[in-house]
Amino acid sequence: MAHQTVIEDSDIINGLQIRFLKLFGIWQIINDYRKTGKQNIILKIQVFITVIIAAPSVVCTYVGLLVIEVDIQKATILNFHSLPTLQALCRYIVFWYNIDSLSRLYNLMKKDFLEEIVNDMQQEKVEFIYRKVSRNSNKTCAIVFVAIAIAGAYLLFSPGISVEYIMHRTGNTFSTTGGRKKISTGWYPVPMDTSPCYEFILFYEGFLVT
User: Which residue windows are transmembrane per the record (predicted)?
Assistant: First the structure.
Protein backbone atom coordinates (compact mmCIF):
# COMPACT_ATOMS: atom_id res chain seq x y z
CA MET A 1 0.00 0.00 0.00
CA ALA A 2 1.00 3.63 -0.43
CA HIS A 3 1.83 5.07 2.96
CA GLN A 4 -0.74 7.43 4.41
CA THR A 5 -0.13 10.44 6.59
CA VAL A 6 -0.26 10.01 10.35
CA ILE A 7 -3.39 11.49 11.92
CA GLU A 8 -2.38 13.95 14.61
CA ASP A 9 -4.65 14.96 17.46
CA SER A 10 -4.91 18.41 15.91
CA ASP A 11 -6.33 16.85 12.72
CA ILE A 12 -9.33 15.36 14.52
CA ILE A 13 -12.80 16.88 14.29
CA ASN A 14 -13.19 19.47 17.03
CA GLY A 15 -14.80 17.94 20.10
CA LEU A 16 -14.42 14.31 18.99
CA GLN A 17 -12.91 12.24 21.79
CA ILE A 18 -10.44 9.47 20.91
CA ARG A 19 -9.42 8.50 24.44
CA PHE A 20 -10.91 5.01 24.13
CA LEU A 21 -8.97 4.39 20.91
CA LYS A 22 -5.79 5.43 22.69
CA LEU A 23 -6.64 3.46 25.83
CA PHE A 24 -6.87 0.17 23.94
CA GLY A 25 -3.94 0.88 21.63
CA ILE A 26 -6.04 1.11 18.46
CA TRP A 27 -4.96 4.68 17.72
CA GLN A 28 -1.28 3.70 17.81
CA ILE A 29 -1.95 0.60 15.70
CA ILE A 30 -3.73 2.60 13.00
CA ASN A 31 -1.19 5.43 12.90
CA ASP A 32 1.77 3.05 12.81
CA TYR A 33 0.18 1.21 9.90
CA ARG A 34 -0.54 4.47 8.09
CA LYS A 35 3.10 5.43 8.52
CA THR A 36 4.87 2.13 7.80
CA GLY A 37 2.32 -0.08 6.06
CA LYS A 38 2.94 -2.83 8.63
CA GLN A 39 1.13 -4.18 11.68
CA ASN A 40 2.91 -2.95 14.79
CA ILE A 41 4.01 -4.88 17.86
CA ILE A 42 0.94 -3.84 19.86
CA LEU A 43 -1.42 -5.53 17.40
CA LYS A 44 0.79 -8.61 17.19
CA ILE A 45 0.81 -8.97 20.97
CA GLN A 46 -2.96 -8.49 21.17
CA VAL A 47 -3.56 -11.12 18.48
CA PHE A 48 -1.15 -13.56 20.14
CA ILE A 49 -2.71 -13.14 23.59
CA THR A 50 -6.24 -13.42 22.19
CA VAL A 51 -5.47 -16.65 20.34
CA ILE A 52 -3.62 -18.21 23.27
CA ILE A 53 -6.28 -17.25 25.81
CA ALA A 54 -9.49 -17.57 23.80
CA ALA A 55 -8.85 -20.58 21.56
CA PRO A 56 -8.83 -23.20 24.39
CA SER A 57 -12.22 -21.98 25.60
CA VAL A 58 -13.80 -22.30 22.15
CA VAL A 59 -12.22 -25.68 21.42
CA CYS A 60 -13.12 -27.16 24.81
CA THR A 61 -16.71 -25.94 24.56
CA TYR A 62 -17.32 -27.68 21.24
CA VAL A 63 -15.42 -30.81 22.25
CA GLY A 64 -17.59 -30.88 25.35
CA LEU A 65 -20.68 -31.31 23.18
CA LEU A 66 -19.28 -34.71 22.22
CA VAL A 67 -18.21 -35.71 25.72
CA ILE A 68 -20.85 -34.63 28.22
CA GLU A 69 -24.56 -35.36 28.20
CA VAL A 70 -26.48 -32.66 26.34
CA ASP A 71 -29.95 -31.90 25.09
CA ILE A 72 -31.15 -29.12 22.80
CA GLN A 73 -31.39 -26.58 25.61
CA LYS A 74 -27.97 -27.33 27.05
CA ALA A 75 -26.31 -27.41 23.62
CA THR A 76 -27.87 -24.04 22.80
CA ILE A 77 -26.59 -22.51 26.04
CA LEU A 78 -23.08 -23.87 25.50
CA ASN A 79 -23.02 -22.47 21.96
CA PHE A 80 -24.42 -19.13 23.09
CA HIS A 81 -21.78 -18.64 25.77
CA SER A 82 -18.94 -19.52 23.40
CA LEU A 83 -19.95 -16.88 20.84
CA PRO A 84 -18.32 -13.83 22.53
CA THR A 85 -14.97 -15.61 22.68
CA LEU A 86 -15.32 -16.82 19.11
CA GLN A 87 -16.32 -13.30 18.08
CA ALA A 88 -13.16 -11.90 19.67
CA LEU A 89 -11.03 -14.28 17.61
CA CYS A 90 -12.88 -13.44 14.40
CA ARG A 91 -12.68 -9.71 15.12
CA TYR A 92 -8.90 -9.78 15.29
CA ILE A 93 -8.66 -11.90 12.14
CA VAL A 94 -10.84 -9.43 10.23
CA PHE A 95 -8.92 -6.47 11.68
CA TRP A 96 -5.56 -8.01 10.74
CA TYR A 97 -6.43 -8.75 7.12
CA ASN A 98 -8.46 -5.57 6.51
CA ILE A 99 -6.31 -3.07 8.37
CA ASP A 100 -5.48 -1.20 5.16
CA SER A 101 -9.13 -0.42 4.42
CA LEU A 102 -9.83 0.35 8.08
CA SER A 103 -6.90 2.74 8.33
CA ARG A 104 -8.27 4.67 5.35
CA LEU A 105 -11.68 4.94 7.01
CA TYR A 106 -10.04 6.93 9.79
CA ASN A 107 -9.79 9.81 7.31
CA LEU A 108 -13.45 10.38 8.14
CA MET A 109 -12.33 11.59 11.56
CA LYS A 110 -10.23 14.39 10.10
CA LYS A 111 -11.79 17.82 10.23
CA ASP A 112 -10.69 18.63 6.70
CA PHE A 113 -12.39 15.57 5.17
CA LEU A 114 -15.60 17.37 4.21
CA GLU A 115 -13.88 20.70 3.76
CA GLU A 116 -12.02 19.29 0.77
CA ILE A 117 -15.21 18.47 -1.11
CA VAL A 118 -17.51 21.39 -0.27
CA ASN A 119 -17.40 25.05 -1.13
CA ASP A 120 -17.25 28.00 1.24
CA MET A 121 -21.02 28.46 1.16
CA GLN A 122 -21.50 25.07 2.82
CA GLN A 123 -18.94 25.44 5.61
CA GLU A 124 -21.61 26.24 8.18
CA LYS A 125 -23.38 22.98 7.37
CA VAL A 126 -20.09 21.13 7.65
CA GLU A 127 -19.43 22.55 11.11
CA PHE A 128 -22.95 21.58 12.19
CA ILE A 129 -22.37 18.02 11.01
CA TYR A 130 -19.05 17.92 12.88
CA ARG A 131 -20.63 19.06 16.12
CA LYS A 132 -23.49 16.59 15.84
CA VAL A 133 -21.24 13.66 14.97
CA SER A 134 -18.80 14.47 17.77
CA ARG A 135 -21.54 14.77 20.38
CA ASN A 136 -23.29 11.55 19.37
CA SER A 137 -20.05 9.58 19.03
CA ASN A 138 -18.72 10.67 22.41
CA LYS A 139 -22.00 9.85 24.12
CA THR A 140 -22.34 6.44 22.44
CA CYS A 141 -18.76 5.40 23.26
CA ALA A 142 -19.16 6.41 26.90
CA ILE A 143 -22.46 4.54 27.29
CA VAL A 144 -21.12 1.37 25.65
CA PHE A 145 -17.92 1.44 27.72
CA VAL A 146 -19.86 1.79 30.98
CA ALA A 147 -22.38 -0.90 29.98
CA ILE A 148 -19.62 -3.38 29.11
CA ALA A 149 -17.76 -2.60 32.34
CA ILE A 150 -20.91 -3.15 34.44
CA ALA A 151 -21.80 -6.39 32.64
CA GLY A 152 -18.25 -7.69 32.98
CA ALA A 153 -18.10 -6.82 36.68
CA TYR A 154 -21.44 -8.53 37.30
CA LEU A 155 -20.32 -11.75 35.62
CA LEU A 156 -16.96 -11.63 37.37
CA PHE A 157 -18.28 -11.16 40.90
CA SER A 158 -21.56 -13.07 40.57
CA PRO A 159 -20.87 -16.35 38.74
CA GLY A 160 -24.17 -18.12 38.17
CA ILE A 161 -23.52 -21.24 36.09
CA SER A 162 -23.62 -24.47 38.06
CA VAL A 163 -20.61 -26.71 37.58
CA GLU A 164 -22.84 -29.67 38.43
CA TYR A 165 -25.17 -28.74 35.56
CA ILE A 166 -22.35 -28.52 33.03
CA MET A 167 -20.87 -31.85 34.06
CA HIS A 168 -23.90 -34.03 34.74
CA ARG A 169 -27.30 -32.39 34.16
CA THR A 170 -29.52 -31.37 31.26
CA GLY A 171 -32.70 -29.34 30.90
CA ASN A 172 -33.22 -25.99 32.58
CA THR A 173 -29.96 -24.35 33.63
CA PHE A 174 -31.52 -22.74 36.68
CA SER A 175 -33.01 -25.98 37.97
CA THR A 176 -29.59 -26.87 39.41
CA THR A 177 -29.01 -24.43 42.23
CA GLY A 178 -26.48 -26.09 44.51
CA GLY A 179 -22.76 -26.63 44.26
CA ARG A 180 -20.03 -24.45 42.91
CA LYS A 181 -20.68 -21.76 40.33
CA LYS A 182 -18.66 -20.59 37.37
CA ILE A 183 -18.82 -17.62 35.01
CA SER A 184 -19.56 -19.32 31.68
CA THR A 185 -20.96 -22.63 30.49
CA GLY A 186 -17.64 -23.79 29.10
CA TRP A 187 -16.63 -27.42 29.62
CA TYR A 188 -13.00 -28.34 30.30
CA PRO A 189 -11.33 -31.79 30.37
CA VAL A 190 -10.49 -31.55 34.08
CA PRO A 191 -12.43 -32.22 37.31
CA MET A 192 -14.07 -28.80 37.28
CA ASP A 193 -15.73 -29.13 40.69
CA THR A 194 -12.60 -29.86 42.69
CA SER A 195 -9.69 -27.69 43.80
CA PRO A 196 -7.41 -26.40 42.39
CA CYS A 197 -9.04 -26.97 38.99
CA TYR A 198 -12.15 -25.04 39.98
CA GLU A 199 -10.17 -21.98 41.09
CA PHE A 200 -8.04 -22.07 37.96
CA ILE A 201 -11.12 -22.25 35.72
CA LEU A 202 -12.76 -19.40 37.61
CA PHE A 203 -9.64 -17.27 37.18
CA TYR A 204 -9.37 -18.22 33.49
CA GLU A 205 -13.00 -17.37 32.74
CA GLY A 206 -12.66 -14.14 34.69
CA PHE A 207 -9.69 -13.23 32.51
CA LEU A 208 -11.77 -13.97 29.40
CA VAL A 209 -14.51 -11.66 30.64
CA THR A 210 -12.10 -8.81 31.27
Answer: 41-68, 140-157
